[in-house]
Structures are given as structure tokens and as C-alpha cells.
Design goal:
Blueprint lengths: L8 E5 L4 H12 L3 E6 L2 H11 L2 E4 L7 H13 L4 E4 L14 H29 L2 E6 L12 H21 L4 E8 L5 H5 L4 H5 L10 H12 L10 E4 L8
Parallel strand pairs: 1-2, 1-4, 2-3, 4-5, 5-6, 6-7
Bound molecules: NADP nicotinamide-adenine-dinucleotide phosphate.
């Protein structure tokens, strides 16, 4: 299937490794021009070279950084037709162990960066009457997980934003969707030394996901063919979520 991505320009944030990098690589493979961003300049440069993307450095938890990344991507690529908002997960903790500063930082990182990136890219998408916006959230947005208080609390709100915004922009040929990774074997999960067997036993598919499987979902949602899928939150989780 020709996904119609050869002439498209994509910004994928949080993409020097893990899910973001897999999405950026898949879009590039389909012929899109791609810009990526993350905090560590060395890793950004290596990933950009690996994928064939433009590398941008920024910390999305700092106010103003996301707007700046959107501006730079538009300048370097000549416009952004596909925006994939991704960033690092917030720190784990219960309500009692989560300090005010962690809430505020996570709000900037997960919430305001989403608002600022969309705000930066939306005018051009409206002008061209084409846009694909995806926000990477988590299973926690639908079913809270123990000790992930910030993620459980903030991420469902992003789904509200996605659905409401999709109604405002669908008439301009722009789709807005959330994509929820299930347990997916990225470096981060390997580094924290998760018990793969124990987690796999809780997943109907009997295994963790692969970043390229998540990337395939994002790539399809970025395509011309996905123009009628609006305001949804779609999981790639091996059947983990129960909610219908
Ligand atoms: N993998 C899973 O199983 C899973 C499941 C559910 C939800 N998720 C969510 O999906 C997202 C991606 O997960 P992942 O496993 O791919 O994580 P990852 O491997 O840690 O990758 C995160 C990427 O985002 C960048 N990043 C982190 N904080 C940033 C910031 N403040 N500003 C800009 N870039 C930043 C990182 O680079 P730098 O560190 O250099 O900035 C890296 O490129 C996270 O929000 C995570 O919570 C993942």
C-alpha cells in the first residue's frame, strides 16, 4: 500500500531512542522528511544520522522549549504535515510520594509541550488543509496502573484534548489521535531490568511489544488513507487493556 508519505514532513519529538525513534525511522522509510528532538545532543546526532533525519535538541519540560522546537522544525523542513508528540515518561510514585515539583514538571513535560507543539504546527496544517497529529500516551490513560500517579492523573486529560481538538480541525483535513503503547521492549524497559517473563504472562499476546509494531500504527495513522480516523485513542498493547 502506498501511504502517500513521500511528500510529507514530520516532526517526532522524544525520538533519539525508543518508541519515538522507531516512529521517526518508519516515517523516513516511507519517504517522509523527518525532524527529531530530544535532550542529549550526542544521542540526537547519532539517531538523526542513523535515520536520515534533522536533529534538534531541546528539553520539553522547560517552558518555551516545545514552541521553539516546532519553529525550528518548520524552518528546517519547510513545514510540518505530521506531528508526533512523544516525551519521556513521568517519574513513578504514589500520591504520598509525589512532590509538588514533580507534578509541575510533568505538567510542562506532558501537557504544555503537547499544547505548544500543536499550536506551532496547526496554522500551516490548516493552510495546506492536511495534517496528522498523534500524541503518544500510555495504557495508564485508560486503566490506571499502581504507583504511576502522575501518568494516571495527567494522561487521560490528553485524551480529552485529542477528542475535542479533533472536532475543531477535522473539517480542515487534520486528524488528531492518541496512541497508547502497551509494554514495549525499548532500551528504557531493558535498562530498568523489568521481569519480562512476569509481564508477558499478564499480556494476552504472551509477549511484550516491539517498537516497530507501535511505529507501524503511527505510520498508518500518518497516511493519506487514515484521513477518516479522528479523535481516537488507539492501543498497541497485545490485548492488555480490558476497557472497551
Ligand atoms: N515502552 C513502554 O513500554 C511504554 C509503555 C507505556 C507508555 N510509554 C510511554 O511512551 C513514551 C516513550 O517511551 P520509551 O519507552 O520510548 O522511552 P525512552 O526509550 O526513554 O525514550 C524517550 C525519548 O524521549 C526523549 N526525552 C525524554 N525526556 C525528554 C524531554 N524532557 N524533552 C525532550 N525529549 C525527551 C529521550 O531522550 P533524552 O533522554 O536524551 O531526552 C528519548 O529519546 C514515554 O512517555 C513512556 O512513558 C512507554
Amino acid at each position: 500500500m502506498d501511504l502517500g508519505l513521500e511528500t510529507k514532513r514530520a516532526l517526532v519529538t522524544g525520538a533519539s531512542k525508543g518508541l519515538g525513534k522507531a516512529v521517526a525511522g518508519a516515517l523516513r522509510t516511507e519517504g517522509a522528511a523527518v525532524a527529531i528532538c530530544a535532550r542529549d545532543a550526542g544521542r540526537v546526532a547519532a539517531a538523526a544520522k542513523d535515520i536520515g533525519a534533522v536533529g534538534l535538541v531541546g528539553d520539553l519540560s522547560i517552558p518555551g522549549a516545545a514552541a521553539n522546537i516546532a519553529r525550528q522544525a518548520i524552518e528546517k523542513l519547510g513545514g510540518v504535515d505530521i506531528l508526533v508528540v512523544n516525551t519521556g515518561g513521568p517519574p513513578a510514585g504514589t500520591f504520598e510520594t509525589t512532590a509538588d515539583e514533580a507534578w509541575r514538571r510533568a505538567f510542562e513535560n506532558l501537557w504544555m509541550s503537547t499544547v505548544d507543539l500543536i499550536r506551532g504546527c496547526l496554522p500551516g496544517m490548516r493552510e495546506r488543509r492536511f495534517g496528522r497529529i498523534m500524541i503518544v500516551t500510555s495504557m495508564t490513560a485508560r486503566e490506571p496502573l499502581a504507583k504511576l500517579m502522575i501518568s494516571n492523573a495527567l494522561r487521560p486529560g490528553i485524551h480529552g484534548l485529542v477528542n475535542a481538538l479533533s472536532r475543531e480541525v477535522a473539517g480542515d483535513g487534520i486528524t488528531v489521535n492518541a496512541i497508547m503503547p502497551g509494554y514495549t521492549l525499548t532500551e528504557r524497559l531493558r535498562d530498568i531490568g523489568i521481569d519480562e517473563e512476569k509481564i508477558a504472562a499478564q499480556i494476552p499476546a504472551g509477549r511484550l511489544g516491539r517498537p516497530e509494531e507501535f511505529a507501524a500504527l503511527a505510520t498508518f495513522l500518518a497516511s493519506e488513507q487514515a484521513g477518516y480516523i479522528c479523535g481516537q485513542a488507539i492501543a498497541c498493547d497485545g490485548g492488555y487493556l480490558h476497557a472497551i
